[in-house]
Each structure stands twice: as C-alpha cells, then as structure tokens.
Amino acid sequence: MSAKPTVAGELVQIQEAEPKLTIEDLCFATSNYLESQQVDNIRRAYFYAEQAHEGQMRRSGEPYITHPLAVAHVLAIMHMDHECIMAGLLHDVIEDTDVSSEELAAEFSEEVALLVNGVSKLAQAAFETRLHAQAENLRKMLLAMSQDIRVIIVKLADRLHNMRTLVHLRPEKRRRIAHETLEIYAPIAQRLGMNLMRCELEDLGFHVLYPIRYRVLADAVRKSRGNRKEIVNQITNSILNRMEQEKISADIQGREKNLYSLYKKMVNKHLSFSDVMDMYAFRIIVDDVDTCYRMLGVVHNLYKPVQGKFKDYVAIPKANGYQSLHTVLFGPYSLPIEVQVRSRNMDQMAEAGVAAHWLYKTGDSEGSNQAHRRARQWLQGILEMQKDSGDSIEFLENLRIDLFPEEIYVFTPKGKIMSLPRGATTVDFAYAVHSDIGDACVAARVGRHLVPLSTQLDNGESVEIITSPSTHPNPAWLNFVITAKARSNIRHFLKQLRNDEAVMLGRRLLNKHLQAFSVQIKDIPHQRMHDLLEELELESLDHLLDDIGLGNRSVFLVAQKLLQDDLSPENEQQPLLIAGTEGMVVNFARCCHPIPGDPISGFVSAGRGIIIHQLGCKTIVNLRDQQEKWLDVAWSPDVNREFPVDIVIHAKNQRGVLATIAVAVSEADSNIDNVMVDERDSEYSDLRLTIEVINRQHLARVIRRLRRIDVVERIARINQ
C-alpha cells in the first residue's frame, strides 16, 4: 500500500518543476522584444544584485540570487519593460543588503530605484505586531503603486515565486503566507485584470491551506475530464460547422475553472462536485468587436440561450477593464453550456490585465488604455481611503472589503454607469458619486420611487440622491454600507465630530479648573501657552484641549503648568454640569445607568472622555485609587433627554403578563428598549427590562404604575 502524499512532498514536486534559470535564459527571453542596450542593462542589474546578495542563501540551500532571477523571468514572460525586469532582479537589495535607494538611483535610474523602494518592506522592529507591519507595508506599497503601477506587478511576481517555493518553510509560516496570498495578493491581481497570475496564486494558496480538499478536487477533475471528452468534441464540432457556414474565423478553446474557483463555487452555492462539473465551458476568440456580436448570434441560433444568463461586459466592462460576452445555453441532452466570446485584444487583456505587453509600448490600444484608466481610478480610491483611515489596521480592513466585489451596474439620472459591489446601498452609491454627495444625502429615489437609504441596489436600476446642506453622516449608516469608500468617509466624519466635541469638553474642563483661580483660558499670556504647547510637543491649543477632552492628558496638571504653581485658589471649584447632550466624549456607564437625580461622579478614561457613574456604583470602589482621574460633576438643570435604566420585575407566570407590563410602561410615557426573562419556577419569572426615563421622578412614576398590576409581586431598580 503506497503512502499518502504529503503537502511538503507535493510542494517539492512543484518546486522541482520550476526550471533552473540562468542570466543567459533571461537575456534570451527578453531579446525577443527588447533592444540590445536594454538587455545589456538587465544583465548589468543581474551582476549587481548577485554581488549585493553574495553569501546569502535561501532556505533551500540555493544562492539567494536564484529568487530575484526567477522573479525577473516571470516579468519577462509577461513582456514587461526593461526597467521593470531590472527592478525584479534588484527588488530585495534595499531590504536585505546595505545598498540604499540613492545608490540604486545613481547606478541605474531614479525609476528603477522607485520601483525597488516601493516593493521593499519596512523594518519589522518598528511595529508592535505582525498585523501592524503587514498593514503598513501594504499601505506603503499601494502609495508607491499609485505613482507607478509596475510596483505591484513586481510584487506579484515576487509573491508568485515565493508561493512556488514554500516547501522549505515551517508549516505555520507556509499557511500564514498562503492565507495572506488568498486574502490580499490574489484579489489585487484580479482587480488589475491579471487573470493568469490570480489563478496560479489561488491554486498554490489553496494547495497549502487545504491540502486534502485540493487533492480530492484535483483527482475528481482529472477523472471527469476523460468522461466529458466526447460531449466536448461534439459541441466544438457543432460550433465550428456553424462558423464555417457564416464565414467567421475564430479560435475555440475548452475552458476549465481553476481548482480554487471550483472550490469557492461549491462552498458559496452549496453545490456538489457533479453539479459544478455539469457545466461545459467554452471560450471563442474572434478578430474584432463586431465579430463578437455576430458570433454571439451564431451560438444563440445553434443552442437556445438560458433566460437571464447573458452578460455584456463589452459594452459595460468590469471594474478591472475585463471585456467579454458571457452567455449560458441549453446544449445537447439539455446540458448547460457556458460560452465566452471576446476579441484577441480582449483576451490578452483578460489574461494579463494592466501587465499586457502593449501597455508600456504603445498608447493607442483602447483595451490597454481602458485597463490602465480603471486601475488608476481604483488606486485613486485606495489613496482617498488611506487618507481617511485612522490607522493602518483600519486601512487594511477597508482594503479587504474593497478587494472582494461581486459587481452590479447602476445608472445616475444622467445615464452614467456606476459600478458597485453586490449588496451596495443608496448611501454607497452616493459616496461613489462624490464624498460630498455621500456626506449630505438625506433620501434616495430608485426608479423614481423614494426608498430608505439602507435599500440595497440591483443591476440596471437608476438612482437619484437627494441632498441637504445641513445634513451630516449618521453613525447608523455603518451598519449597512459595504464599500470601503463609504465606510472610511463616515468614520472620518465621526472622528472629526468626536474631535470637535472633545475640544469643546476640554475647554469646559480647563476653564472649570482655572475658574478656581479667577482665571480663564483667554487670560493666559500667549507666551506661557506657547511654551506649554512646545513642552508637550503639541501643534495648537485645540490639540491640547482635544487631549484633555478625550482623557489622554490630566486637566489638573495642565492648569497647574499654565498657572506656574504661583497662585492659590480664590474660589471654591464648581462641579462640571452634565446635560447629556455633550456627544461622544461624555458617556454614561452601563454598569449603573445613572439618570438625572442620581448623585454622580465622573471618571476620565483615556481615549473615551468622561464616564459618568452613580456614586454608589461598585466600579467606583475599584477605581478609587486613581484619584487624579475623578471629576466633581453634577446634573445640569437643563437636562432634556431620555436615559436607559434597568429594572427587574418579579411576576406571576400568566398569559399576557408581558403585554400588560408593556402597556403600563407606555401609559407612563416610557419605552422598553430590551427585555430578558428568567423563569424562576413554574409560578414566577423575573423580567429584566431596560426602559427610557427622563429622571428619577419619571422612573418612580413608571414603577408606581407597574405596582398596580395584580401579577407583579415586587419591582427593583438594578444599579449594577
């Protein structure tokens, strides 16, 4: 009985299948399309990299230069220009050797140095966690990519060769790299239209992460291929005969999905392997766009099309520039046939995307220009997103969202086509049009009908956004928007709003401490304020007030420094008045739910502002050792809002008891926010209610009303 193959064993086979390349192989591959001087520059870059990496070895035991050489060869196969291939050879010299970016620029060119610098990782030691490092490196690479798209092409080639040679790494590191590849790099390749690159990255990642599933699926595909051969030949011959009658010249290819795509389809749509493989797929490649539509008519006449399964990506290309006609037909024996029809330029674009070889050689190709333009648009969106992202982790989260769109197409009132991910709402549409439109949207019309802002859009709908200059983003929008642009813009606004509120609170707190000395902020000499800001390394007074409001800096110490310890208090310090309208920087503790009328105290929490607790709250006891963080606060006489409060009702188990309680609460001008029922025994239950009240008097009125209900035995407020 033969031993089962291992992941490591299979990875060895993949690596051994890799040809052992030399610089002469690379020069020969590039001489077919580059000038001799450019090939010489590539050779010079190779020897420079070889010298820089001298003594360095890969984990396989091979000289390190074998890796950059393989990366450059991947780029040569894609017919990239000589500077890009030179960057492939040199891509690790800044990161792994003493060579600087300036030295590279002096030795070769600024362009080569920029490409290499864009691919180079930042030092791991500069970050708290691996996730922060990953996020910052991605941010750096994408910023470089916005200046030159070739940065990501070099990086993808680098990642591809690393995936081909994972065998010598520890299993946990292999899995981590494979997961990152499937999550980040394969989707980036897809967004840039680089289909061949995407497919190989996905299959290699799938192989490492799910080896058994990969093996089973690969065996099943191999077996089914032989069973399907006769039907494939029959369909191919039928199409060829009809093409001959119509005098159309075209190439027909049988098309197979890569294993990872098959696996995702089976998982996402809950299909069996036989269901997935029932589909016979063909790709027909013609000379021009007109012939695409003629060919579509030919196959529709030959086999009946399935209603609703035709997609025209020629007239409306995908976001990555992909163009093709897709249709599904009823074939022989009622078997479904999936047919793609595209021109030769479209096919080249579909396989190589922005790396299509004509992209850097001519500027007259419509396909390449379109792909390049769409890639630029996507990168511009990424740049906007990273500006509004608070930190690298948030940026990474937004990027992941942006990389997995299943697209729909909707129209503006003027007929412009907008591409959005499936599940996008009218708010996502508003932000896709313009950030200002998104910030100011109040309502939307879909097909001339007013709809809620949370409405999800469908293909082909016409959308009109109604705006108001006095409107601002709502935090609730974060619960339903799905595009990274909408999410980052809303978060940016809320962060700014929170900062404004923090500045206002910080001003109140500082003035409150200064008032004990009969001083206000405006009375502080300008030079003294300037010296303090310089000492604290802050840019402005607003930054200082923001820090105080968010609890990141002690207001007592700031006041002390401003007064220079030379003043004695003239007045008794007054408590800070809490109105409940301070915004996100004043929060009410969930442990005790303070309401107006309760004796309260304020705790300054770093990053959150002031947390208001009841004086009798148990949390206060645990935090009493941090005296400097407690504030003397009191309720403002002008409080005019409702506050949540928890009560527990011990009641008999009778039909309709909850409905009776709800009516009583409503009659007392209150609302129930939440209900939890704990059945004590067959006779009694404890009902825990969260209700909205204005103050203690209002709460007392609600409780009195509830006590009149016959089935209610006792009621108590829950303070902890």
Q: Specify the CATH architecture of the largest domain.
A: Orthogonal Bundle
The major β-sheet equals: 6 strands, mixed
Average pLDDT, rounded to a whole number, is 81
- Beta-strand proportion: 15-25%
CATH class descriptor name of the largest domain: Mainly Alpha
Low-confidence stretches: 122-127, 357-365
Q: How many structural domains does the protein architecture include?
A: 5
Helix fraction bin: 40-55%
Class per helix and strand makeup: alpha+beta
Q: How would you describe what is shown here?
A:
The protein is α+β, with helices and mostly antiparallel strands. It has five domains: 7-209, Orthogonal Bundle (Hypothetical protein af1432); 223-356, Beta Polymerase, domain 2 (2-Layer Sandwich); 405-482, Ubiquitin-like (UB roll); 492-635, no CATH class; 643-718, Alpha-Beta Plaits, CATH 3.30.70.260. The protein contains 28 helices and 21 strands. Strands 1, 2, 3, 4, 5 and 6 form a six-stranded mixed β-sheet that branches. Helix 2 (23-31) runs parallel beside helix 4 (66-77), helix 5 packs across helix 10 (150-164) and helix 10 packs parallel to helix 12 (195-209). The protein is globular and about 90 Å long. The two termini are 66 Å apart.
